[in-house]
Amino acid sequence: MNRPLSDLHVAVLMGGISAERQVSLSSGEECAKALERQGARVSRIDAGRDLANVLSGLIKPDVALNCLHGAWGEDGCVQGVLETLRIPYTHSGVLASALAMDKDKSKAVLKAAGLKVPGGGLFDRRQVATRHVIDPPYVVKPNAEGSSVGVYLVREGANDFASEVAAPDWTYGEKVMVEPFIPGKELAVTVLGEAAGPRALTVTDITPVKGFYDYEAKYAKGGSIHVLPAVLPPHVFEAALRQAEQAHTAMGCRGVSRSDFRYDDVKDDLVLLEVNTQPGMTPTSLAPEQAAHVGMSYEDLVRWMVEDASCPR
Question: Of 231, 286, 293, 259, which is closest to residue 113 (Cα–Cα)?
């Protein structure tokens, strides 16, 4: 977009149908307000499966700011709808979005690119609920969800299993990802896919206030402590920046992405957990916090995302 925001009609897609609906509503509302402060005309759209009909009923927006998270909004589906309607949109395209949401396939791509990823693999959820499929400690997570939804930590010496994944109301697929737990620091790096190449902003060290870095620790006010820039050996800090940029490229991302790492400071071992193609934009989110650290206000970041929007042919 080469036009000022005051000339643009922006459809902010939020909410959606995934387990991350509430986070998306918060992200979308914050982004909508930031756009309105800069003079844009904003249509707030709670994006369900009727999105194509809803958008077709509007005066066609100039751009769609995708603030959806999880299934439907982050996995290539909404991206395909927007391309069909010929509406430029923010963040990654169909293929990169679908790939990043599939932890098993994305790990294969990242590993092929020379990046270190966790071991483990996919297992039937009922097996995982009744026995240790790998030696504890390990982490159990859905193969295609984000925001630590449905994530469980089975600790060393535990006699119980991740029984929750066999519950009748489990909706995250028959296969779950099981990975060895990596001790140490939880790190995150935001990347902007600029014309000159991807640019990593900084590294954040995340410490949950209580136990594991789960959904509540990510989004509840005061749920975690963010230290940025992270206090790390210089070679680790630099490696996290460069590997996040490399991952952004390997996955085919565009716009904003965020790479999540674990760093075992005893073994000096940096492991890339996953790439998120739709980082949160809530008041507690990492991407706007890192942008502010390098001199980009929340409004600057939202404007950058809108200006970066495109619609591949």
Answer: 259
